[in-house]
User: Which sequence fits this backbone?
């Protein structure tokens, strides 16, 4: 297979064992890249074993230890790479944690530590940074039927008032990345995915995949806070990262979302598609403003998105294969 590929350059993926990063590593390997993946412990088979089973991994994947909170920790992994895909993000703390000390500052410092290593690398061509669509949609001033694009930024003050620390951490980290890269002449592009749905390559489910599994099992606690939300297939997000890295004309921020729906719309679709699963029928009305996400900028580069049905079909199939759902319950 490798002999048939047109081999490409060397790139680094931070947090390579994560839910999204694993798919990005998979797609980069299939595209012919040599991938340096940073992880907390390269010897932890339970966390990284799935990466070594990817096609091309034995020939073109290296895993290196790095810690977001240690300056210089990424130097060795990034040096000599033409591209860096920064997907790693600090793990959210426990409910009673100090959000500034355990969530906000680590998100900013971790991003800047990676970028300082990028600055030392004379081979660097571009950095692709994984942000979030949440960085555009938490605002006081959303008009009725608002259509949000990349020019929008979430209100830091509103995030603090509502105590939505994840959104604030992603907003502050992306802003810090833009400031650092502009000051240091680093070519940066950011990807703003909506809620990511799809197969989990890691056998241990992350919080996102666990929340989806909970919804399919009838739980409402995590999803009830969504209200209205955009959804995107995980493979589409991985492909978007590569598209933006390879396309020299790509500049700035890129929203990445297939469909925006209310909770009740989502569960109606899922209940009809998987009638044997205990999909919740209704959610509490949070009275959140109606909005849509304008993804014209990404579509103009040729990106096409999978449907909501496709992303959940692939997700359900994966959960069955990994033993988290029974095939009988998930069948129509």
Assistant:
């Amino acid at each position: 297979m490798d002999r048939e590929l047109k081999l490409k350059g060397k790139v680094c993926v931070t947090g390579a064992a994560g839910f999204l990063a694993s798919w990005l590593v998979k797609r980069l390997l299939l595209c012919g890249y040599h991938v340096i993946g940073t992880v907390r412990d390269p010897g932890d088979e339970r966390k990284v074993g799935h990466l070594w089973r990817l096609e091309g991994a034995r020939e073109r994947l290296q895993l290196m230890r790095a810690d977001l909170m240690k300056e210089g920790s990424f130097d060795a992994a990034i040096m000599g790479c033409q591209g860096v895909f920064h997907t790693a993000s600090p793990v959210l703390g426990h409910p009673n944690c100090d959000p500034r000390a355990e969530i906000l500052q680590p998100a900013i410092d971790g991003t800047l530590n990676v970028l300082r290593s990028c600055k030392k690398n004379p081979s660097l061509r571009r950095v692709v940074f994984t942000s979030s669509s949440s960085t555009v949609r938490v605002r006081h001033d959303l008009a009725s039927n608002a259509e949000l694009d990349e020019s929008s930024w979430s209100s830091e003050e509103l995030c603090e008032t509502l105590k939505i620390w994840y959104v604030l951490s992603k907003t502050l980290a992306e802003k810090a990345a833009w400031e650092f890269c502009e000051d240091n002449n680093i070519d940066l592009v950011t990807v703003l995915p909506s809620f990511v749905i799809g197969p989990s390559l890691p056998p241990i489910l992350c919080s996102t995949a666990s929340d989806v599994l909970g919804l399919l099992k009838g739980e409402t606690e995590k999803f009830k806070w969504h209200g209205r939300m955009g959804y995107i297939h995980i493979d589409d997000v991985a492909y978007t990262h590569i598209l933006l890295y390879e396309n020299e004309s790509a500049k700035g921020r890129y929203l990445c979302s297939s469909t925006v729906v209310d909770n009740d719309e989502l569960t109606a679709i899922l209940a009809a598609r998987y009638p044997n699963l205990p999909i919740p029928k209704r959610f509490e009305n949070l009275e959140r403003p109606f909005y849509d996400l304008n993804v014209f900028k990404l579509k103009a580069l040729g990106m096409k998105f999978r449907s909501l049905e496709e992303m959940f079909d692939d997700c359900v199939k994966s959960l069955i294969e990994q033993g988290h759902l029974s095939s009988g319950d998930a069948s129509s």
Summary: The mean pLDDT is 92. The radius of gyration is 19 Å. The chain has one domain: 8-321. DSSP finds 14 helices and twelve strands in the chain.
